[in-house]
């Protein structure tokens, strides 16, 4: 009975939640919102990059500050902390290992739609934020659904499902990926790793959004720079394989990937589904989690924070995921051993 129930859940997850309907909804929503905002995310992409990168290297103009608890940069670091390391390392390894190199192309397409969606949801989150009974600034999809659309039952439904999802895609996947990688590399028992992770997470969470943002503001840039440097070193050694890897990404996206070595092969539709789903997992556009963090930013205009949402997806999915994809493909490990876990594959590719 239980096995039948779990099989039904797995089929629903594979065929519906992460199947063709998800692909259609993701791309359809991206195109619809792109028309609504008149393509500003792409037509003014230079403004997006100039504003966000400028803030990284010079003091922010005081006139851009507004009502909020944390800085815009702290908000984007808090949002990125949920995906950097898991989504764009382990997630990409899983995409390539199961969907082939062509899945990276579909991940890019998901990211382009995600840049538009994230801009809109972050902008709405700031526009409809409010203060709770403890005088804290709060926001997110449940607030702009309730206050903007006036559909309170839908807002409550989102909050409920969002709460439940936080235990799965929001926490357990990251903790499991970390534990498995550390266990396979250093042999530390899984329960011990889990206990340390739980303790550290608890110490950070006790301090609320301010402490979370302060920690992520320090750790996320360091982790990102360290990862990019390590990846660059690996790609220098594998430079001769990069042109072939890029060609495989574009070719296999429309022809599928034939079985080779330990790789069982993948059709175009499967590569599309895997790439799109891994894209959603890494940039989380449309999931509603990142806007909750962005709602606390001290910005003078909702759309200004929306620019950070676009930058977040661009950096996380276009930059970081592409780097990871090239490292995995040029290493040849994606088709070497079908029994190798995604975490072990990522570690070995950098080893």
TrEMBL record:
<feature type="transmembrane region" description="Helical">
    <location>
        <begin position="313"/>
        <end position="336"/>
    </location>
</feature>
<comment type="similarity">
    <text>Belongs to the alanine or glycine:cation symporter (AGCS) (TC 2.A.25) family.</text>
</comment>
<protein>
    <submittedName>
        <fullName>Amino acid carrier protein</fullName>
    </submittedName>
</protein>
<feature type="transmembrane region" description="Helical">
    <location>
        <begin position="186"/>
        <end position="206"/>
    </location>
</feature>
<keyword id="KW-0813">Transport</keyword>
<keyword id="KW-1133">Transmembrane helix</keyword>
<feature type="transmembrane region" description="Helical">
    <location>
        <begin position="20"/>
        <end position="41"/>
    </location>
</feature>
<dbReference type="Pfam" id="PF01235">
    <property type="entry name" value="Na_Ala_symp"/>
</dbReference>
<keyword id="KW-1003">Cell membrane</keyword>
<keyword id="KW-0812">Transmembrane</keyword>
<keyword id="KW-0472">Membrane</keyword>
<feature type="transmembrane region" description="Helical">
    <location>
        <begin position="218"/>
        <end position="240"/>
    </location>
</feature>
<keyword id="KW-0769">Symport</keyword>
<feature type="transmembrane region" description="Helical">
    <location>
        <begin position="75"/>
        <end position="98"/>
    </location>
</feature>
<feature type="transmembrane region" description="Helical">
    <location>
        <begin position="149"/>
        <end position="174"/>
    </location>
</feature>
<dbReference type="GO" id="GO:0005283">
    <property type="term" value="F:amino acid:sodium symporter activity"/>
</dbReference>
<dbReference type="GO" id="GO:0005886">
    <property type="term" value="C:plasma membrane"/>
</dbReference>
<dbReference type="InterPro" id="IPR001463">
    <property type="entry name" value="Na/Ala_symport"/>
</dbReference>
<feature type="transmembrane region" description="Helical">
    <location>
        <begin position="104"/>
        <end position="128"/>
    </location>
</feature>
């Amino acid at each position: 009975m239980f096995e039948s129930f779990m099989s039904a859940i797995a089929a629903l997850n594979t065929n519906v939640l992460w199947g063709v309907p998800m692909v259609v909804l993701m791309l359809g929503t991206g195109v619809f919102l792109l028309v609504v905002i008149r393509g500003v995310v792409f037509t003014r992409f230079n403004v997006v990059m100039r504003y966000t990168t400028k803030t990284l290297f010079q003091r922010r103009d005081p006139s851009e500050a507004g009502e909020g608890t944390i800085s815009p940069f702290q908000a984007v670091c808090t949002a990125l902390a949920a995906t950097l390391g898991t989504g764009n390392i382990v997630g990409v390894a899983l995409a390539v290992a199961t969907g082939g190199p062509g899945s990276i192309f579909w991940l890019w397409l998901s990211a382009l739609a995600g840049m538009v969606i994230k801009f809109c949801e972050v902008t709405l989150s700031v526009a409809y934020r409010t203060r709770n009974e403890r005088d804290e600034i709060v926001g997110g999809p449940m607030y702009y659904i309730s206050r903007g659309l006036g559909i309170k039952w839908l807002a409550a439904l989102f909050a409920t499902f969002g709460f439940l999802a936080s235990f799965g895609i929001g926490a357990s996947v990251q903790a499991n990926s970390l534990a498995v990688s550390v266990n396979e590399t250093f042999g530390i028992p899984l329960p011990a790793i889990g206990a340390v992770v739980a303790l550290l997470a608890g110490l950070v969470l006790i301090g609320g959004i301010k402490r979370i943002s302060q920690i992520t503001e320090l750790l996320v840039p360091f982790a990102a720079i360290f990862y990019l440097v390590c990846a660059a070193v690996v790609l220098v050694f594998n430079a001769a394989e990069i042109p072939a890897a890029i060609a495989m990404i574009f070719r296999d996206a429309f022809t599928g990937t034939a079985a080779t070595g330990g790789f069982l092969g993948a059709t175009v539709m499967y590569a599309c589904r895997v790439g799109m789903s891994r894209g959603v997992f890494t940039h989380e556009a449309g999931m509603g989690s990142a806007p909750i963090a962005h709602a606390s930013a001290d910005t003078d205009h909702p759309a200004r924070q929306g620019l950070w949402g676009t930058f977040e997806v661009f950096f996380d999915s276009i930059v970081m995921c592409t780097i990871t994809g090239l490292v995995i493909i040029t290493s040849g490990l994606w088709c070497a051993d079908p029994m190798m876990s995604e975490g072990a594959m990522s570690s070995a590719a950098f080893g």
